[in-house]
Design goal:
- Strands 3-2-1-4-5-7-6 form a seven-stranded mixed sheet.
- The termini are far apart.
- It has eight helices and seven strands.
- The protein has one domain: Vaccinia Virus protein VP39 (Rossmann fold).
- By secondary structure, it is an alpha/beta fold.
- The mean pLDDT is 94.
- Helix 1 packs parallel to helix 3, helix 3 crosses helix 4 and helix 7 packs across helix 8.
């Protein structure tokens, strides 16, 4: 393994420790992602040297914010953050499943292959993000989305799942307060903010959301 990648991986797993089995699944996922990245833009090329800290640890930290969650939905999964990472962790949880919703066919194909090579409990839905609710059957404990849309739009996508009892966790950047202010124009929400372990961002936690007016 390249020395820089090895150091980045070490730093990431210090921030968000996992079992040896999960680490092995994540290794397979990273190898696949680097292979596909050459022909399909899955992550910003500038972030590749810090793939483990920037993307994997960033995704892993969500698990500790929803310790009892077994059934997850990840909207706009893209290159698999956090959906595939969550599925790698959930492989050790009996009865767990992760729904990955992605509207771009090439990325959905990658996600399916990532779920296969990691032998993780994921279901990939090739669909527009707003259509996810009809496709996801059964209860969802936690819904998430990373780098997908402004917060007020994310709440709109996630609200039907939240109505069914799901908690929402949305990683956001430094401008989280502005996004919360904007979201409050459209939604009645009570949010909890968690500082990200992997940078100067935040994770917005929402238990309920009802549309204003």
């Amino acid at each position: 393994m390249d020395q820089d990648i090895a150091a980045d991986k070490f730093a990431a797993l210090k921030l968000a420790p996992v079992s040896r089995e999960t680490e092995a699944r994540l290794d397979r996922y990273v190898a696949l992602l680097l292979e596909w990245q050459a022909k399909t833009n899955l992550v910003a090329p500038s972030t590749l040297p810090h793939l483990w800290t920037r993307h994997i640890a960033d995704s892993l930290q969500l698990v500790s914010l929803a310790p009892g969650a077994k059934r997850w939905a990840d909207l706009g999964s893209g290159g698999g953050f956090p959906g595939v990472v969550l599925a790698c962790v959930m492989a050790e949880v009996p009865g767990a499943s992760v729904h990955l919703v992605e509207r771009i066919a090439k990325k959905a194909a990658f996600l399916r292959e990532a779920i296969r090579v990691t032998a993780s409990p994921g279901v990939v839905h090739l669909a527009e993000i707003g259509d996810n609710v009809d496709r996801i059957t059964g209860p969802v404990d936690c819904v998430t989305a990373r780098a997908l849309a402004p917060l007020h739009q994310l709440i709109g996508f996630a609200e039907p799942l939240m109505r069914g009892g799901a908690k929402a966790l949305f990683p956001k950047g430094q401008d989280v307060e502005a996004e919360l202010t904007e979201a409050a124009k459209y939604w009645n929400i009570q949010s909890q903010l968690h500082q990200s372990r992997t940078g100067d961002g935040w994770i917005v936690e929402l238990a309920t959301a009802t549309r204003r007016g």
